[in-house]
From TrEMBL:
It holds the Pfam family COG6_C. The gene is COG6. Required for normal Golgi function. It is a peripheral membrane protein. This is Conserved oligomeric Golgi complex subunit 6. Belongs to the COG6 family. InterPro entries: COG6, COG6_C, COG6_N. It comes from Thamnophis sirtalis. GO terms for cellular component: Golgi membrane; Golgi transport complex. Residues 8-119 form the Conserved oligomeric complex COG6 N-terminal domain.
Amino acid sequence: MLEALKTLSDFFVENSLRTRRNLRGDIEHRSLAINEEFVYIFKQVKEELENISEDVQLMSNCCQDMTNHLKATKEQTQDLIVKTTKLQAESQRLELKAQIADAFIAEFQLSPEEMNVLRCTRDGTVTENFFKVLRRIKQIHNDVKILLRTSQQRSGLEIMEQMALLQETSYEQLYRWAQGECRALTQETCDVSPVLAQAMEALQDRPVLYKYTLDEFGTARRSTVVRGFIDALTRGGPGGTPRPIEMHSHDPLRYVGDMLAWLHQATASEKEHLEALLKHITTEGVEENMQEIVGHITEGVCRPLKVRIEQVIIAEPGAVLLYKISNLLKFYHHTISNIIGNSAAMLLTTIEEMHLLSKKIFFNSLSLHASKLLDKVELPPADLGPSHTLNQTLALLREVLSSHDSCVIPLDTRQTDFGQVLSCVLDPLLQMCTMSASNLGSADMATFMVNSLHMMKTMLALFEFTDKRLEMLQYQIEAHLDTLINEQASYILTRVGLSYIYNMVQQHKTEQGPLANVPSMDSMSLKAAMVQFDRYLSAPDGLLMPQINFLLSTAVKQQIIKQSTELICRAYTELYAAVMNPDNAYKDPETILYRSPHQVQSLLS
């Protein structure tokens, strides 16, 4: 309603009687005008639609024509499409086959660049790329075995044969190159190139070629070592430093030591060269191969070394030098064996032979010296001290043991050698001392033997491995000390007049009657003896055998005095007991022996 009124207000602008009367007509006229306008507009739309319809009809006709044309064209090109499709499928199959063929060739054939590397190697140059190609050939040879389990057995066999031929050719080229490189290693300072070490790693797959190459290396280095050893003997080092070893031939120990030291250094150097050459080897037995080759390298110096050491040993420079040379040879045998192992290397055999020879001549020298000791036995000196021959022999033994004590050979070997040396020298020495003292009195003989044994013991105490010998010497010293103790006690008892009395006390038996009735055992005789015994008690050191003063050891001298004094006290105790015994019929025994045994012991202690 509001919309109608609003629309009416647009053209009903004047509210008058006339306008109200004509309102209906105006509305109808306006409605007619609107309808006419609507009809006019729709007429235009109709015309446009008719035009569009005509255009659509034309387009439909055109499309129909095109469809018919395409249908006709399709019918005409159907054969061409089929042929094209077949050709595309065939092209794809051929492309796939080409890819497979390329992959097969890349997997089982060498590239032109790799073949070129093998051809360049024939000119005598081996590079890192050669080993890459060799590993590639080996890989192809292993991978081609897969084809043998498929329908491509023929191709697999052909490729395997081809790779095997390339492998053998490559290994032959590599062997000849490595052989030439090894022959060129004749300088004293041998630098093994990394490429040569790689060549040895590759050749380990061909044991025969590997062995031949190692032999070539050993032969080249052997001549170098021999030449270097001769130069060291005769020419010395560069510029004369160090001096030639032959210049020290007047000093046997240094001469032999310098030769062995040079060989030890050379052996260690050759071992290092071999380790550099075989550092990439992974097969078992490489250590044995190294020991064998080092033994072969050092074999050339064995003859000149043996001749020179034999000359030194046969010249007999003296027992001490022979023993030092023997220990030196033993030390270097042990040291070099740590480098080249305990295999039957000629160098170790030569050193061991020289060691045994020097040891044999050393013991022959000691045996000769010992036999001379017994051939002409020297009489003991007037002071009953060690004889000149004993001192000389002990000085020789001390020097031998000192050199042995300072050597660095294994402990068990040193202990065995010690026992042999001591047996070879000490036993004849003890026999000589016994023969020398055989015509002496018991006290003189015991004194001489104690002094001689004391000298031996004092000298042996300075060295190890002598415990058994020291114990044996101590037993002998104690045996002779017992003699001296008894002699000293008898000497005192005789000097104080108690020797006869003590003997009678020991020999008396109860059934023989009272001891006082025995001749020279009466109270007066006992009192006279006690007077002299009192003098002894006042100055006990005044009654010493002359032989006691000849003893070299103060401790031994004091031991003899002490133990002989104990024997005196024991004898006095027995005498005191006999005198105080009423059965022996002594009157007033306290006036005869007025000192008790305890008092006598206190005075003598």
